[in-house]
Amino acid sequence: MRRDFHVHWLLLPATALVAAPAAATTYFTVEQAQQQLLPGQALAPVAVTLTPAQAEAIEKASGVRVRDKTLKVWRAANGGWFYLDQVLGKHEFITYALALDAQGAVTGVEILDYRETYGGAVRNPKWRAQFTGKKYGAPLKLDADIVNLSGATLSSAHITDGVRRLLATHALVVAPTH
Amino acid sequence: MRVERARPLLGTVVAVRVEGAAGWIDDAVARAFDAVSQVQRRMSFHDPDSELSRLNRAAVQAPQAMSASTWRVLRAALALARASDGLFDPAIGGRLVAWQQLPAPDSADVDPAATWRDVELGHDCRVRFRKPLWLDLGGIAKGYAVDRAVAVLRASGMRGGVVNAGGDLRVFGDALEVVHVREPNDPARSRPLLHLRDGAVATSAGYFSTRDGRSALVDTCGNGSLGHDVSATVCAPRALWADALTKVVLADADAAVPLLRRLHAQAALLDGAGAPRILPV
C-alpha cells in the first residue's frame, strides 16, 4: 500500500485563503433510508402527536428534551417500525432514521443528512426548515464541495441521546406493552 | 457506481464514500460498517461490556486474554509509547475520567502514578497490569477501525473511496483527494491543507473536547492538556499511525520528527497565525 501513498501540502498562508464553512452531506432520501433499513417492507405512516404529559414522561424516562411533539413514524408490514428524527448539536444538524423490530429492539440507525455551519444559522428554525419534509429528495448544494474534512472528533452524543428519546417514546406512547 | 453512507459509531459520525460495481457495492459498505462496529464492541471505553472494559476491570488481578485485533492495537500503542518515551500513553484513562472526558468505570480506583510501563503485554494475546490502571485506546483505535474498513472495501473489489471516522480519514484508489482541516481557533471554518492519494490523515486539536479549560488531549509530561488554539495533522500510509502520531506531534513536535520518518509520515502544525509548519522539514 505504501507504493502509492502520496501527500502534497498546500502551503498557502492563512491570509491568502478564504475559509469555507464546514461539511454538509446528504446520504439518503427518506424513501431510500426506509428501503435500506426495512427492505421490501410496505410502510404506513402513523400519526402521533405527543400530549404535554406524554412529552414530560418521555423526558423523564430518557433524560432528553422533547423538542418536536409531532412524531414522524411508520409501521412496517412485518411489525417493524421506522422513525425519522432530527438532532441539533452545538455545531451540527443531523437528520437520522431509527429502525425497530416488532419487539421494539433497534435493528439499525442511518444518517440521512449531516450538516455543520457557522454563525448560528443551524439554530435558526427557518434555516432548519429547508431540510425537512419533501426537500429530502433534492440534495442541497449549499457547501457540498468540502467532502474530506479532517479535524478533532465531533461527538455523536446528540444522536445517542436522540435514539434514547425515541426508544422511550416508542415504549411509552407508540407501542406500549401491557 | 458511487455510494455514500454515514452512521453514528465510535462516538462520532463514520462516513464511507466508495466507488465500485453496482450489485457489490451495498454489501461491501455494509461489511465495512460491520468491521467498524466490531472495533467499537471490542475497544470502547464507554461500553462496560467491551473487551477493553473487561481488561480494565480484571488485568491487574490476573493476565487477561483478548482478541487478535485488540492485541494488535494495544501492541502498536505500547510500541509508540516506548518510542515516544511516553508522549503517547494508552494508560491515561484514569486522568481522562478525573477530567470527566471519559465515564468512570465501576471498578476500583486507579493508581495515579501508573503509566504504559505498567502494562505487560504477552505474545499470546494476553495482558497484565502491574498497577491498577485504565487503558484508553481512544487515541489510536479510531484509526485502526478506518484501516479495517478500507481493507474490507478493498477485499470486496471496490475501486476507490474514502472512510472518515469523525475526522480521521483514509483514501484508497487512484484519486487524488483534497483534504480540508478546521481552523484551530475557529473550527466552524476550514481550509484546504493537502492532496492525498492512497493514505491516511488525522487531526488532533482541543476545540471540540475542551471543558473546564481542559481538552481530551493529555500532556503526559505535566498536569495540563494539549491542543489549545493549535491543531496537529498527520499523514501516513495507515490511519492507525496517523491517528496516534497526532498526539505525539502536539506534545513535542521536535521529538516527533524521528518517529514521523520511521513511519513514513508527515505532519503539519496549524496555529491559525499563518502558513502551517510542516514536519519533517
Question: Could you explain how this protein is built, in words?
Answer:
The complex is a heterodimer of chains A (about 180) and B (about 280). By secondary structure, chain A is an alpha+beta fold. Chain A has one domain (about 20-175). In chain A, about 25% of the residues lie in helices and about 25% in strands. Chain A has helices spanning about 30-35, 50-60, 125-130, 155-175; strands at about 5-10, 20, 25, 45, 70-75, 80-90, 90-100, 105-115, 150. Chain A has a six-stranded antiparallel beta sheet. In chain A, strand 5 and strand 6 (about 80-90) form a beta hairpin. In chain A, helix 2 packs across helix 4. In chain A, about 35% of the residues are buried. Chain B has about 280 residues and is α+β, with helices and mostly antiparallel strands. Among the domains of chain B are: about 50-130, ApbE-like superfamily (T-fold, Orthogonal Bundle), CATH 1.10.3980; about 175-280, no CATH class. Chain B is about 30% helix and about 25% strand. Chain B contains seven helices and 13 strands. Chain B has helices spanning about 25-45, 50-60, 70-85, 95-100, 140-155, 240-250, 255-260; strands at about 1-10, 10-20, 65, 120, 125-130, 160-165, 170, 175-185, 185-195, 200-205, 230-235, 265-270, 275-280. Chain B has an eight-stranded antiparallel beta sheet. A three-stranded antiparallel beta sheet of chain B has the order 3-5-4, with helices on one face. In chain B, strands 8-9 form a two-stranded antiparallel ribbon. In chain B, helix 5 (about 140-155) runs antiparallel to helix 6 and helix 6 packs antiparallel against helix 7. The longest helix of chain B is centred in the first third of the chain and has 19 residues, at about 25-45. Chain B is globular. The relative contact order of chain B is 0.14. The mean pLDDT of chain B is about 90. The interface between A and B is large, with 48 and 67 residues.
